[in-house]
């Protein structure tokens, strides 16, 4: 790498640069090697940085994108996709884009609304599968949770929305306030099971959920907003029969980190539509 590329910085899922989940976006990564992208992501230090490896020019609608956490490449990243859509909208103007990722083509868009940019994407096909008793015991042990903390009407499972995310629904949102887990132990478990983040979530009222997402897999203690986990949760609710196509709900995340994020989710036939604002960070 002869010259450091420009890294645009956006706060995804928030109207303020002090809130939401920061993401880096490199719009011209064509000349970067894997090692270059990993080094840049580690230097930026956000939970993910997106790298557009196709030429960004007027009329471009299909672009290849890769995502790197500080420690490793991830197959997909929701909040960095929102940031990428906003960055493309700022350069090319509002519109629709197809982002070719490791989980397949992702349809994304950017639009202007009341002086702000709203990014959105249609997730990969969502699904839900059981969490085995052994996996649940190991996960609860690393988190310091017990089975009594879990909501009896929402069984533990593994949701998929571009990445695999175990879903643990707490009976009480106050359970999410206690967030002291074994980083190295949970990281080893997540790497062994290919779990990118853990969706710890609790109902907070009609159509509203409160969430926290440990992300030791990527070298990050906690993610302030996790778009792929939101999509996975839509698949989880649909598999339970608690959501049908056309249903919408909101996930509030990042509050305890001081980076409150608001993720808007619409359940689709086979996927989820994830949307939220993205704000330029200085």
UniProtKB/TrEMBL annotation:
GO terms for molecular function: isomerase activity. The active site is at 48. GO terms for cellular component: cytoplasm. InterPro entries: Phenazine_PhzF-like. Keywords: Isomerase. SUPFAM superfamilies: Diaminopimelate epimerase-like (SSF54506). NCBIfam families: PhzF_family (TIGR00654). Belongs to the PhzF family. This is Phenazine biosynthesis protein PhzF. It comes from Streptomyces dysideae.
